[in-house]
Amino acid sequence: MTTDSYRPEKNISTFYPPQRTLMGPGPSDTHPRVLTALARPTLGHLDPVFTEMMEELKSLLRYAFQTSNLLTFPVSGPGSVGMEMCFVNMIIPGDKVIVCRNGVFGGRMIENVERSGGTALIVDDKWGEPVDPQKVEDCLKKNPDVKILAFAHAETSTGVQSDAKTLSGLAKKYDCYTIMDTVTSLGGTPIYMDEWGIDAIYSGSQKCLSCPPGLSPVSFSERVADLVKKRTEKVHSWFMDINLLLGYWGTSRTYHHTAPTNSLYGLHEALVMLHEEGLEHSWARHRRNYEALKAGLKTMGVEYVVAEPYRLPQLNSVHIPAGVDDKEVRRRLLADYNLEIGAGLGDFAGKVWRFGLMGNSSRVEKVLFCLDALESTLADMGSIKVERGAAATAAHLHYAANPILA
Ligand SMILES: *Cc1c(COP(=O)(O)O)cnc(C)c1O
Predict the structure, then answer these.
(1) Averaged pLDDT score across all residues of the chain
(2) pLDDT at 405 over 80
(3) Where is composition skewed (Basic and acidic residues) in this entry (predicted)?
(4) Whether residue 213 has its Cβ less than 6 Å from ligand 1
């Protein structure tokens, strides 16, 4: 007999989420093709038809990362799990790791290093600025026993892109491994994993790939595979141990954990779409929409946090104009327009908005909608002067002058 004391207080029925437009730091809008893929019949995670799909998924990810690494697959878990997986497999207690910190995610990497038993040597740069390669080289020179260099390619908390090629070149020069966070960059800006010589990379499904959250594509070089194979001390995580996971994602197909089959159909579909569009076209689309958003924001006097050459087209951090009520603007955008934009994180809370133009949220009609909603909201609130209609016009003019190249 059940008792009433465990009964929910209200009568709960099916959950119907509102149809929002997601233009913050992620998740981005899931494409209808991906949503449809998610709803297909569930298969067993060892079903031969499913394992065939897994092979396609791995090859599509190799294309996205521009790598030939055999060890390329999606981990069951959000981007944070991909991050942790890199550190926990590659660090042996006592190892020294240089972590570049120019925003929130560098800070999380430090946590990961320490929890894996390593020592983090921190190279700090200001929020809103890229990692300074000179500081990294100075640190490498001073510490010849450093094993790993870790940095975020795209720092989502600030909208900055760091020079991955130069940083990984330094790692090579001083004979250490690289771990690179590409959660926000994958699909949105160029990544050449092999050409740049990156050893370990992780990403997320919900940013420029426009899948629901919960999967983290990762890739590891042959060097990392050897390193992990040769460990005498067990990896300090059962779930994330690459050697064990390979039993499932490798050729033997033995049970490790029940893979989230439907979520993986979704990622497969998103990567098929990326492949159909072509990486270069996807990068160009993200850039074109950023330029249009920028032209519109300019008409409202809204200024960027990051200097032009280091901006991420998919994550636009801007200063909230003086006198404008941050929370009220975001509340109105959500209530009146079903539009979500990003608030500032950490040091930037209350000072910065983050407009995400990621994946399926990086579209002409969404840029125009976002500019129009923001402009109207600011005009209605009256705290700053804006000219109604100017933002969308500026964006339209940008699009007209910059047609999509074939
Ligand atoms: C979003 C993000 C993460 C974390 O991903 P989750 O899926 O939220 O765990 C890590 N790094 C960067 C740069 C991100 O933008």
Answers:
(1) 97
(2) no
(3) 1-10
(4) yes
Residue 98 near residue 136 (C-beta atoms within 8 A): yes
Cα(92) to ligand 1 centroid in Å equals 24
CATH number of 32-275: 3.40.640.10
- For ligand 1, the distance from its centroid to the CA atom of residue 179, given in whole angstroms, is 14
What's the confidence (pLDDT) of residue 239?
96
Q: For a pLDDT cut of 90, what percent of the chain falls above it? A: 94
Atom of ligand 1 nearest to the CA of 182: 13
User: Are the C-beta atoms of 380 and 37 separated by less than 8 Å?
Assistant: no
Q: How many CA atoms lie within 13 A of 113 on its CB side?
A: 26
Sorted by where each begins, the domain ranges of the chain are 32-275, 278-401
Q: Is the CB of 158 under 6 A from ligand 1?
A: no
Which architecture characterizes domain 278-401 according to CATH?
Alpha-Beta Complex (3.90)
Is 62 assigned a ligand-binding role in the annotation? no
